[in-house]
Amino acid sequence: MLKPATIRVDNETTSERITRQATALSNRLRVVGEIAFPPSAMKTLRHFTSGEVAQIVGVSDGYLRQLSLDGLGPTPELGTAGRRSYSLKQINELREYLAQARPKEAVKFWPRRRAGEKLQVITVANFKGGSAKTTTSLYLAQGLALQGYRVLAIDLDPQASLSAMFGYQPEFDIASNATLYGAIRYDDERVDMRSVIRNTYFDGIDLVPGNLELMEFEHETPRAMGKRSGPEDLFFRRVASVIEQVEGDYDVVVIDCPPQLGFLTMGALNAATGMLVTIHPQMVDVASMSQFLLMTADLVSVIEEAGAQLNYDFMKFVVTRHDPRDVPEQEIIGLLRDLFGDDVLGAAAWKSTAIANAGLTKQSLFELSKGAVGRSVYDRAMESVNAVNGEVIALMAEVWER
Ligand SMILES: Nc1ncnc2c1ncn2[C@@H]1O[C@H](COP(=O)(O)OP(=O)(O)OP(=O)(O)O)[C@@H](O)[C@H]1O
Ligand SMILES: [Mg+2]
């Protein structure tokens, strides 16, 4: 039995003490985690009511009912009082059906990229911790999947919060060589990109999980830089080149970056076709942004000097965790818009206890039903999340010239 982390153990070295604290914390989290949410193998996505499906897909509820009465499209599950509900897989079947039945609106119902439309790689970054990178990545990935896109989510953060949201406990569930590190490492233990990609319970999203082993890339890159030559070995190309290997399977890749500007983030900056920089609109956070931008410019110039060009289709600031009643926050957003104009997304993700609480049980609002958090709270939070996602989808559509 381990001693409680608060009690000092005699003759303990500092490293032993920290290890003991880490172990105590991790054991406790494991217990709490198992109570709060089932292990990933058991995580399932709820069904969506026909009202929700009508809204998500963009048809009327009455039309959906008629389809199901006529036996067209997927057969929804019938609940009490004849309520119809659909799994996400069925929503996608419905999309496919509608695209065929209403060919003029095919792109709207079945928005996957067509021949000639390039894969979009959206990197979510900021070295400021807690600026809602992971939350933004998660809601974007899920929002895109609900809209019918095929999404690859990459957790590039050794803290692995994104993987945790998908039900993985990074320390227990992710074996070695099962993160992106496995696919981009320099030695001959490197594995195929496909072997680090997993399906998730959220239809349409595949995940490359993260855990601490990603740190190895930060340690090994300086060593490898000394030895190698040839463009395929350039460290900042490695993330992009493994994504290229699976390009045909996806419409969008969403990369959740760690809160630092290391070699992994540099790889993600290089792989990106679009960048989202998350900002929590508080003075301390905005103050560090100028540093973030300068350091990012430095990293990008290293890449440029090596002969690569980063021509992002878009690079936008996304205001996150915004409390619209907070006057200083409004002023900061005003300042950002004044400085950066259209480079700041028009919509902001509002601060919501529903989002924070759902996060505690490793869920997103998409996974909860309205009843679970109160309709108005739910609707308000979803509205702001959907508005942010909607703008990103519009940017993607522009790239695809739709
Ligand atoms: N819109 C929101 N409303 C309320 N809470 C939020 C919102 N967005 C994020 N949070 C909460 O803020 C915290 C930090 O968010 P998140 O983990 O997404 O930030 P991050 O930038 O990924 O952090 P890190 O730098 O550590 O990776 C989390 O507890 C999350 O649940
Ligand atoms: Mg994060």
Concise summary:
The chain is of the alpha/beta class.
Polypeptide structure, described:
There is one protein chain. With about 400 residues, the chain is of the alpha/beta class. The chain folds into 2 domains: about 50-110, Orthogonal Bundle (Multidrug-efflux Transporter Regulator, Chain: A, Domain 2), CATH 1.10.1660; about 120-400, P-loop containing nucleotide triphosphate hydrolases (Rossmann fold). The chain contains 17 helices and 10 strands. It has a 7-stranded mixed sheet with strand order 6-7-5-8-4-9-10, sandwiched between helices. A 3-stranded antiparallel sheet has the order 1-3-2. Strand 9 (about 275-280), helix 13 (about 285-305) and strand 10 form a beta-alpha-beta unit. The longest helix has 25 residues, at about 375-400. The model has no long low-confidence stretch (mean pLDDT about 90). The structure holds adenosine-5'-triphosphate and magnesium ion. Magnesium ion binds near residues 161 and 256.
Keywords:
binds adenosine-5'-triphosphate; 2 domains; 47% helix; Rossmann fold; 17 helices; 402 residues; seven-stranded mixed beta sheet; alpha/beta; Multidrug-efflux Transporter Regulator, Chain: A, Domain 2
What is the CATH topology assignment of the largest domain? Rossmann fold
Distance between the termini: 61 Å
Query: Given the structure, what is the number of helices?
Result: 17
Give the ligands present: adenosine-5'-triphosphate, magnesium ion
Label the overall shape: globular
